[in-house]
Write a structure and sequence with these properties.
It is a single chain. The protein is built from 10 helices and 7 strands. By secondary structure, it is of the alpha/beta class. Helix 3 packs antiparallel against helix 4. The chain is globular, with a radius of gyration of 26 Å. About 5% of the residues have low confidence.
């Protein structure tokens, strides 16, 4: 639309002098009906564009407000899924009662209410419940930033505000969903949104195959996201995250063993600084790291000076080497 408006304005600016030169003396100061009609089209188109932009900005503002309210539920002691469900539904009810949210977002509130109502049944997320709730709120902010039109914004939230169903037996909760693909180009992966981007860190099944690579190669972005990685290197840092991930670094590459994987594999090796290891797991790109509960800007590896957002997460095998 903007290129068309620019062409119309260019045409007006070109025709105006010609119209003035051709007009009789008694019509001086008047460009005639054709010019007025063309100018009216341009002005009305610009007014419509500004109205659409203002409406989109209002929706964006309301979504950020909803996200902020939901974020408050994650402050303080960690809760179980039922606790976050009850708290989230209470806060959504308060948002409805306030009447301060644009009516166009009522379907979004309904989807959020459904998500929070079903939350207690998502027991696969019990170990990372708070982080998941932060991802749900971040999904609203991401959609507000990502969408360029009102239609796109509402469509994104219709598709993205959903969690996987409860897994059957030992099946991966994310394996059967078409929106958890593997071997994904980075630009496509960034379009997953906050919820999917977060959940793929908690895959249970191993990749069907692993690609031998070095940590610097992955840091440089030489591979797709969500493929099996086989990396050998020396551990340069170790620490525990607030969400019970066991974290370590090989140079600038960050690696994490998820809490549910550790529970399923209690004898899993937790490497120490100086260990030479061979690790296998899923390649991952941490798009939303700054939105996480434990983000610390001053962290030398994971803070504002972080070299790369590439990770191996989850790590599923660790072998100590001589």
């Amino acid at each position: 639309m903007k290129p068309i408006l620019a062409l119309l304005l260019l045409a007006v600016s070109f025709l105006a002098p010609l119209a003035r030169a051709a007009a009789p003396a008694e019509e001086a100061g008047s460009l005639g009906p054709p010019y007025r009609d063309l100018r009216g089209v341009v002005v009305e188109s610009e007014h419509q564009r500004r109205r659409r932009y203002a409406e989109l900005e209002r929706l964006r503002k309301d979504l950020r407000y909803i996200a902020e309210v939901l974020d408050r539920e994650t402050i303080g002691a960690k809760k179980d899924l039922s606790g976050y469900s009850e708290g989230g539904l209470r806060r959504l009810a308060e948002i409805r009662a306030s009447g301060g949210v644009d009516a166009k977002l009522l379907p979004v509130l309904q989807r959020l209410e459904k998500l929070y109502t079903e939350l207690p049944a998502k027991d696969y997320a019990a170990e990372y419940s708070r982080s998941l709730m932060l991802a749900v709120a971040e999904e609203l902010r991401w959609a507000a930033q990502e969408a360029k039109t009102e239609t796109e914004l509402l469509a994104l939230l219709k598709d993205h505000l959903v969690l996987p169903q409860k897994p059957v037996a030992d099946e991966d909760a994310f394996e059967s969903l078409a929106w958890f693909p593997t071997d994904v180009p980075l630009e496509k992966f960034k379009k997953f949104g906050a919820i999917r981007n977060f959940l793929v860190k908690h895959r249970i099944k191993r990749p069907k195959s692993h690609t031998v690579m070095t940590a610097p190669e992955l840091v440089a972005g030489g591979y797709n996201v969500q493929i099996g990685a086989d990396i050998t290197g020396v551990v340069t840092g170790v620490y525990n995250a607030f969400d019970q991930d066991y974290c370590f670094d090989i140079g600038h590459l960050h690696l994490e063993i998820s809490p549910e994987w550790r529970l399923m594999h209690p004898k899993m090796i937790k490497p120490k600084v100086g260990d030479r290891v061979r690790v296998k797991g899923w390649t991952y790109f941490d798009v939303f790291h700054k939105a996480e509960y434990d983000y610390a800007p001053e962290d030398p590896v994971m803070g504002v000076n972080r070299v790369t957002q590439w990770e191996v997460h989850p790590v599923q095998d660790v072998e100590l080497l001589p």
